[in-house]
Fold these 3 entries.
Entry 1:
Amino acid sequence: MRPIVPLSVMVTSVTLPRVPDVGAANTAELNTTGFDVERVRADFPILQQQVNGHPLVYLDNAATTQKPRAVIDAISDYYCHDNSNVHRGAHALSDRATAKFEAARQSVADFLHAESSVQILWTRGTTEAINLVASSWGGANLKAGDRILVSAMEHHSNIVPWQIVAEKTGAQVEVIPVDDTGTLDVKAFAMMLDHRVRMVAVNHVSNALGSINPVADMIRLAHEAGALVLIDGAQAIAHWPVDVQALDCDFYTFSGHKLFGPTGIGVLYGRRELLDAMPPYQGGGEMIETVSFTGTTYNQLPYKFEAGTPDIAGAIGLGAAIDYVNALDRAAAAAHEDALLAYARDKALQVPGLRLIGTATNKVAVLSFVLEGVHPSDIGMLMDQQGIAVRTGHHCAQPLMDQYQLPGTVRASFSIYNTFDDVDRLFAALEKARGMLL
């Protein structure tokens, strides 16, 4: 067994309501939200399998969500019937592909309540979207002495791009503190704001802890100080509706694969005046209006930022994912996820030596924990042998793990298709792992 870093973070009391401890046979009685989880599960083919001789329990949704049949069929239908490049083809296939591709962009705009679809840029995911803003807006606007604020709970994708542009421009990256419960310190954030803060880049939800940040308040405070705000919405987008106009954010990003869509496609929403003023991120086809050896003029939004052949199938698949989510009762789905988390946290408190990491009052359905004397990766391996998929490690949040003095955690993240029986199996497998490792 590998050595364990001593634990330094004690757990505060659980604030969510306690749920009765029941056996797997009775867990259906807990679903009082009116959400038909079994009907939803039937839409996801990958869940209908066994792993290592056990029915699959997929609890790695913060890393990527599974795909409903509607998304798989939409991608397959494109390749079977419409496969062509978009926008410039003089034939029927290109016309059909273009129509579906741009309809998906409009679906994203409607989903985010954006004013116009030209504010929706296709990217490869949240990571590229943040890099685009850091490189294009940051490279054109930041200078020595400027400050960029990021929180201590950020994913590496919302840290490293700002460090790169800060090194090039002489700006400074500064850290908004997070307390031991995993709650961002808004008072400290407010005190950090001054006229030198040009950008605040924070996640809507922590991927490592599930903490929900008060982004509306933070945006208001940042704007009062004259700063722009980028919100990393990768972990929020699947859990509740997002209205970028109501938030009043300057940029909002998310990845399709976190929203039951395909990998390799993502979205950057931006204020139109900001996007218009920003220089292109990459050069090549599609992002140009005219090219000559004496100079080039750039295309209009959104194409100015979409060099090269895009992920057409990915955009169409994301559009289908949004259609799928829109057909759900999202309030009931959120209540179902909250009930799963409450049930899991109640069971976690009963496990000897288990400590929850991240106990903020406002959380999505993410349960991160460590087991005293056991390395997280050992737990993950034994879980997999029992058909249970969890994530272990630092979750691309090494500065946060350093604050907790941990090599990483075990993270179980729940989604709309998870059940109370999944939670029971998680903790039955954990008990078996304890018996083997301790």
Entry 2:
Amino acid sequence: MFEKVLIANRGEIALRIHRACHEMGISTVAVHSTADADAMHVRLADESVCIGPPPSSKSYLNIPAILSSATLTGADAIHPGVGFLSENARFAEMVEEHGLAFIGPSSEHIAMMGDKVQAKVAAKELGLPVVPGSEGAVTSYEEARAIAKDAGYPVLIKASAGGGGRGMKVANSESELESAYRMARNEAKAAFGNDEVYLEKYLQKPRHIEVQILADGKGGAVHMGERDCSLQRRHQKVLEEALSPALNAEERHRIGETARQAILKMGYHSAGTLEFLYEDGEFFFIEMNTRLQVEHPISEAITGIDLVREQIRVAAGHTLPFTQEDITFSGHAVECRINAEHPKTFAPSPGLIKEYHPPGGLGVRVDSAIFGGYRVPPHYDSLIAKLIVHGQTRNECLMRLRRALEEMVIEGIDTTLPLHRDLVNDPDVINGDYDIHWLEHWMGERG
């Protein structure tokens, strides 16, 4: 097992990894920008190294500084967390070239699934169902028009190197296709430096269903059930739940086993998530995230498995200590992403937290690195806390979640707490009757 792990991230996920390491008897190294010198993960780590000024490009994305810090402190391994360098294949490769373990999958698998076009081709080869559309990149409007006619309108044009909704446009008819195609390419070029796009059928009212997987690359692979991530705003997840209220037992088994068999064929190791759109009983693969997910705690809540701990064990060469038959699902869990944003305009709200009181009680977990007197910096993602609630039934979980949201206090800055309080009292959310478009329609109706 590793003796010392460098955590190449910040905020709540850095703290989450630190906790797992310490419970395993592993020392931690925190890297940080000058803006995060007083951050909680820096305070609690065994060692810390400043790697640059506030901009991510000069600190948390500064590969030479991170690798130098690992060498300087004598770390055995690097955990990339989520975001930043977690899905950078070259970084994973360089970590191993420096004689360190990368706590994640191989650079080959990161590269394969990081390119959306290549991922779709690989998915078909692995037996995963895919959305009808182009086989690869669409290089001309004429090609896009032919594929759209075959798939049927509406269609979605997506950036091959995309994410977060950038480089993504919908065309409802042929008259809209040319402008959507050109806009998607222009956005992709501006956001990712790569104007390659692909095209697929646009589903009308799908759910966003993702399957959590874990594998050791030595024949051991499990799925930990699915998460329903359909409550989204501008393709950004707001609230997630496990298991999905939309699936029955047969569908759950079918998609879980399909995902598990795919990663076995890949020879994948570490944690990962296969994401699907689900509509009318059918699943369509959209992408794979070759890293830990922000919403991983709800999978932990229903299975009792520590995903970060298992990531670390697998990276150290251990096999999984359980099989699929050992995985059981207990109750229901929901995660609310609390952001430092105005709850209606979603304008960023960095600044001083004057008062902070997390909720507690049975089945309530808060993953956060904030505290009273902490100043939320303006330089990074606005996520400041994750409220995770577990109950024996979905109804019990929602009742407990309402109570926890009422208890939670974050004063001094705007947060999305009021949005979540309204969401969990809406009849459609209570009934589990929503799709990926529901939240934006609901917000539009509320003004």
Entry 3:
Amino acid sequence: MENTKPQSKAAIWTGRIISILCILFLLFDSVMKIVKSTLSMQGSTQLGWPQDDVQGIGIILLVFTILYVIPKTAILGAILITGYLGGAISIMMRAEMPGHPFFFPLIFGILVWAGLYLREEKLRILIPLKK
């Protein structure tokens, strides 16, 4: 394996902050679905999800988020979150509803990986970015 330059403390902390913000949003979104909040239920049903499925989707997102939080499973969690966000993009594009911008899950997915990339040396070794 190719050696990578050690990441600066600033980059590691930037990655941690990005990851924490992503985690907080994902936890909020999943819990709102699990407790069937009115806002979450309305948004999900407007996108075509049956009300009975919203809580299950929230549980799945919570599991993926927990995997992302645990250092040993963070890469697996990021992969699963990427799949979840890909589904969100697909649903939002299909629904073609104003106020449901499909680019949000795309940018959010990039942030999930950026935070992980900045803080996780194993990922930088696996996917080295060259100048």
